[in-house]
Amino acid sequence: MKWPVWLKRSITHPVLGLLLRVYIGGVFIYASMDKISYSGEFAETIASYQLVPFWAVNLMALVMPWAELVSGILMVLGVRTKSAAAAIVGMLVMFSLAILITLLRGIPIGCGCFTSVEEPLGWMTLGRDLVWLIMALHVYIFPSALQLEGRLLKSLQEVEE
Amino acid sequence: MALDRQIFHLQTLYELTVELSPLATTDKLLEAFLLMVMGTFGVSQGGVLLCDRQRRAVRSASRGIPEPRQWTFDEAEKQLYRGFQATAERRLDPMSVGFVVDPQALFPENEMGAVVHTALLFTVDDSLLGLLALGVPLAKRALAKEEQELLRGLTANFMVFLKNAQAFETIQTLNANLRRTNADLRQTITDLTEARHQIRVLEFAKGRLKQLIQREIERAGCFRAADMLLLVILSTVLALIFNYSSPNGIPVVPKAVFQEQAPRVDVLTAHQLLTRGEAVLVDARPAELFQQKHIAEAVNLPAALFDVIYPMKLGRTLKPEQVVLVYGRTISKRYDEDVTQRLLQRHDQVRVLEGGLAAWEEKGFAVAP
To answer: What is the pLDDT of residues B120-166, one digit of tens each?
Structure first.
């Protein structure tokens, strides 16, 4: 199947990459805020999924929100974009699998994606995570405009020459 | 008689040569020459003035003058010029000597500090001129012609030594200048070497910086495992720092890992205790899990709501002799241990049900719903 040129151009356009990068990065920064402030509640949320060994729950509840925040900031700024996008893709894959397993096991819990008090986990939650995963993959694969790191390095190179 | 005088003159010349030959500095030569001349001609007052036009310097020595005059270069040059005008020759060639015709008129006592009986001008070269002024001799008479010739000879001899001393001083000055120049040169070489080293270092740094920027530009568009590792380390460090400084901080490893396990009871014993009404069964899991499935007689008492639910459901009805049996744990949370620890603060008889809900079901005992 041959893709129309306009569609191919639109999908690979750097401005689309920029919009998706800022959106996904912003979502992760926002998602991390409540979890960082209330790590105890987030630890309960992780425990409710019944997937992580009990000795690792608190450590995961502490580190994961900061990983979300750091990767989100890197994504928005366009610093180490590929690595940040890879980290976000990895986290979204992990979240999607956790949601899928929990749905299949029929455990009635909230998602805990943004705050500890949320509507129960459902297939819509999984669908939303998969959409975000596609967006993050787009950022990983295609170039995006206004990447701070690239601009800084190019400026340095110009100064050096 | 004439021969004796000749011998005396030669003897004096010889003694002057012996006296001056070990001296290498101008000042010492002036002193020695003046003393020798004054002794030879029996003079109690005398002075010698040397003017170096090239260096614009004046040197002098005097004997027997109570307050010898301090000469400036201009004063000395002027005085010598006047002296040359008053010699018979009017001008003096290098290494020549001339007597001033009327020294007392030319060099009055108030200017010189003493009566000048004999004055003699000498020229070592174009730039080095001198004046020898002698006071009244003990014999109180003018110098005879032979004595004048002797003085002329002594002065000529003195000029040879003076020229040598000047040459020696010039050599010394040149050597000192050379040493300074060498030191400056060595310092310059050291500075240049250091500068060359710094330039090399800077050029190396420039090359490295260029490579680094180029590498970072290439890396910026690539995925790197090291970045992921750095992200994990950074997140962990930030998380731990924030957690320790936050009032909502939690233990990194759950307390249950380090706590001593609560006493256990097996399912059969628990069932017997419940049948006899000697025990109360508590499900420690969250409400949503309790509602999904629980042991039929169990009371739901989640740890998160312990302080609210305990007084309502157990506080009033629980008898001191009754045993509280607690169950409920998952791979991620030991709810039973948490609730047991809190119950033990209020009640003595608290046991954890070994195997929990799964073991209960396995034995075929009733569950709800």
So the answer is: 999 998 889 999 999 999 888 888 888 899 999 999 999 999 999 98
Is residue B244 a part of any domain in this protein? no
B155 shares its domain with B292: no
In this model, does residue B179 exceed pLDDT 90?
A: yes
- The reported pTM is 0.60
3-state secondary structure of B130: strand
Contact B228 A48 (CB under 8 A): no
Q: Which residue of B has its CA nearest to A49?
A: B332
Which of residues B123, B140, B173 is at a domain's end?
A: B173
Structural domains of chain B, count: 2
**A58, A59, A65, A70: CA torsion to nearest 10:** 170
Write the residue in A53, A65, A82 that is nearest to B222 by C-beta. A82
Phi and psi, residue B225, nearest 5°: -65, -35
- Asked if residues B288 and A49 have their Cβ atoms less than 8 Å apart, the reply is no
Chain B residue whose CA is closest to A64: B235
B-chain CB neighbours of A48 within 8 Å are 286, 332
Dist CA A70 CA A62 (whole Å): 13
Name the one residue in this structure whose structure tokens are 């008492």.
Answer: B301
B312-343 pLDDT, tens digit per residue, is 888 778 888 889 999 998 899 889 988 998 89
Tell which residue, B51, B28, B73, has the closest CA to residue B126: B51
Residue B206 lies in a domain: no
Angle between helix A81-105 and helix A39-49 axes, rounded to 10 deg: 60
Is there a domain that residue B324 lies in?
yes
CATH number at residue B83: 3.30.450.40
Which range marks the domain in which residue B315 is found? 261-368
Residues of chain B in contact with residue A71, where contact means CB-CB under 8 angstroms, are 231
Domain end position, chosen among B173, B189, B208 = B173
- Reported as a single tens digit per residue, the pLDDT across B189-225 is 999 999 999 999 999 998 898 888 888 777 777 788 8
At B272, list the tokens.
Answer: 């017997």
Best CA proximity match to A59, nearest among B45, B89, B85, B257: B257
Q: B359: distance to nearest CA of chain A, Å?
A: 19
Question: Helix-strand-coil percent breakdown of chain B, rounded to 5?
Answer: 55, 15, 30
**Band (A116; pLDDT cuts 50, 70, 90):** low
Gap between the Cα atoms of B176 and B182, Å rounded: 10
From B223, B234, B252, residue closest to A70, measured CB to CB: B234
Model pLDDT, residue A1: 64
Angle, helix A148-160 to helix B145-220, in steps of 10 degrees: 150
- CATH code for the domain in which residue B357 is found: 3.40.250.10
Is A54 in contact with B256 (Cβ distance < 8 A)?
yes
CB contact under 8 A, B224 and A83: yes
All structural domains of chain A with their residue ranges: 14-160
Answer yes or no: is B301 within a domain: yes
